[in-house]
Design brief:
The N terminus is likely disordered. The protein has eight helices and two strands, in the order αββααααααα. The longest helix has 61 residues. The protein has one domain. Helix 7 packs antiparallel against helix 8. It has a two-stranded antiparallel sheet. The protein is an all-alpha fold.
């Protein structure tokens, strides 16, 4: 009777990668705070009675006073209508999440050049100095370093493993890297949806405010007629176009910041992929 040999099975996953406990409270608070801030800028700063030659005397119109005769060019935005505070709020949201993503991605990039970091890891692994490679990961302090450290911990564990063959050990290292990557990438891409959404919606909001302003202007022209109505029409069109300017400007800033951040995230992602390839190829070459 032929003797059957037990086949080695893959080791249980004891991943060293830990889920990041980071709440996304800013995604809840920031939009609400920006909406309130946008309204206050429009109502209190732009809509101050001192900025108009004919302020609204009716105190009951506190939410949207009908001030007339803006004294400055900047103050004319107030007469753009209720869409203006929404556009201001959108711009504040863009600034808030641009700063938040800038700080997060800068931290994720770590210290030093990613390519130089990977070359150091390759050098230490070629000399079979895994502990020195792990120490380099602690110095890097970024997403690439975190993924590399998780992979190196499994790498070190597989060196002393006598139950698995080389291919199975490489698969275990690769699985560890994939788990660590799955924990890092969501942190990098979080909240970018605000920038991408505003990049598309802000222009439409600006056009919407312009259309509302045009409707009001032509309605006055039809009701009053004469030279005075024509003057108010031209003034109303000018005020309505502030909505378009705000919408286009906000959208442009959102698009630029979104592209900047996605480019930097792509660079980090490429570094993570390269680090994973480095570990698996190094182990396959050094521990056959």
């Amino acid at each position: 009777m032929a003797e059957t040999k037990p086949t080695a099975t893959a080791a249980k996953s004891n991943s060293t990668a830990k889920p990041k406990k980071s709440s996304n409270l800013i995604a809840t608070i920031a939009p609400i705070a920006c909406i309130i801030g946008g309204y206050l800028i429009w109502r209190v700063l732009l809509g101050s009675a001192s900025n108009f030659t004919s302020p609204d005397p009716d105190a009951s119109h506190w939410f949207w006073p009908s001030h007339k005769g803006p004294k400055g060019t900047f103050t004319k935005m107030y007469e753009g209508g209720i869409v203006v505070p929404i556009l201001i709020a959108s711009f504040l949201v863009v600034l808030t999440f641009a700063i938040e993503r800038l700080l997060t991605i800068r931290q994720a990039a770590g210290s030093g050049n990613i390519s130089e970091f990977i070359r150091k890891i390759q050098f230490h692994l070629a000399n079979k100095e895994v502990d020195k490679a792990i120490a380099e990961c602690d110095k890097q302090k970024g997403s690439v370093g975190n993924v590399m450290k998780s992979g190196l911990s499994k790498y070190k564990e597989m060196i002393t493993n006598t139950e698995l063959d080389t291919d199975q050990k490489v698969l275990n290292i690769q699985k560890e890297i994939e788990e660590a990557t799955a924990l890092e990438l969501p942190m990098l891409e979080k909240n970018l949806v605000f920038l991408s959404t505003i990049a598309s919606v802000a222009t439409l909001l600006g056009l919407f405010g312009t259309v509302l302003g045009m409707i009001r202007s032509f309605s006055k022209l039809g009701d009053e007629g004469g030279g005075e109505a024509a003057r108010e029409l031209s003034q109303g069109i000018s005020e309505a176009l502030y909505n378009t300017a705000l919408g286009i400007g906000t959208s442009a800033v959102a698009i630029v910041m979104y592209n900047v951040f996605t480019t930097r995230i792509d660079a980090i992602t490429y570094g993570i992929d390269e680090s994973g390839f480095t570990l698996t190829q190094s182990f396959a070459a050094n521990y056959k």
